[in-house]
Design goal:
Elements lengths: L1 H19 L4 H9 L8 E3 L2 E3 L14 E4 L9 E4 L4 E6 L3 E6 L2 E2 L7 E10 L7 H6 L21 E7 L2 E10 L8 E3 L3 E4 H10 L5 E4 L1
Parallel strand pairs: 4-13, 7-11, 10-12
Antiparallel strand pairs: 1-2, 3-6, 4-5, 5-6, 8-9, 8-13, 9-10
Length: 211
């Protein structure tokens, strides 16, 4: 009888501890919906996003919750261009870590910004400088409609600072093999399934730190 009582008490303690992990809505929503590394195909706004062969993506660049020490408040986004990781800060010393692709040599940037806008299946307008380098893009000078072939992917978060639009975005890409590499024109890219996850967490006005 004494052993049964001890076992029951231990079970209640464990249940209470687990319940305490889900008191924060963002964590609870994450655990119940997206922390399964679900990179299967999905239909979004009528578009079928292809599955990612996740076994070919290094584990360090797959979405996961980690312990993360920072003085920044929950909801802040920290981009580490050196390690090719983006962190969405959670309460209690944790963060969601995503693998990213960053700007190639000559296109890197650092600094603080804010999310000014969020867009689903955004229009992409190549800068004049890019059109000058790649004249074939002139056909999109008025904007390329959103879709599976659009370079901004399924979602985009637009970064502004005190001077206005930085021209940089956090956005999706179907080019999963580019994650963990430096090959963009400066924007920070995530796997489409990951940018959807980040989009659902990040709020307009959130602080973004690019290291």
């Amino acid at each position: 009888m004494k052993l049964n009582t001890i076992a029951l008490a231990a079970g209640l303690v464990l249940t209470t501890a687990l319940a305490g992990c889900s008191t924060d809505g963002r964590i609870n929503n994450f655990l119940s919906n997206n922390f399964t590394n679900n990179y299967t195909s999905q239909v979004d706004a009528g578009y079928e996003i292809p599955a990612v062969p996740i076994s070919k993506v290094p584990r360090e660049f797959q979405r996961q919750i980690i312990r993360y020490k920072t003085a920044e408040k929950p909801g802040t986004i920290i981009v580490d261009t050196r390690s090719k990781h983006l962190y969405f800060v959670l309460p209690q010393g944790e963060a969601v870590r995503y693998g990213i692709g960053v700007g190639r040599e000559g296109f890197e940037w650092k600094g603080d910004a804010r999310i000014a806008m969020k867009r689903e299946w955004p229009t992409w307008t190549p800068p004049r400088e890019m059109i000058a380098r790649q004249p074939e893009l002139v056909k999109w000078q008025s904007g390329q409609p959103g879709g599976l072939r659009n370079p901004l992917g399924a979602r985009a978060l637009y970064l502004f600072n005190k001077n206005g639009d930085t021209g940089y975005r956090l956005h999706g890409t179907p080019e999963w093999a580019s994650i963990g590499k430096a090959m963009s024109s400066g924007c920070i890219r995530l796997i489409n399934q990951d940018i959807i996850d980040l989009y659902n967490r990040a709020e307009v006005g959130a602080k973004v730190i690019v290291l």
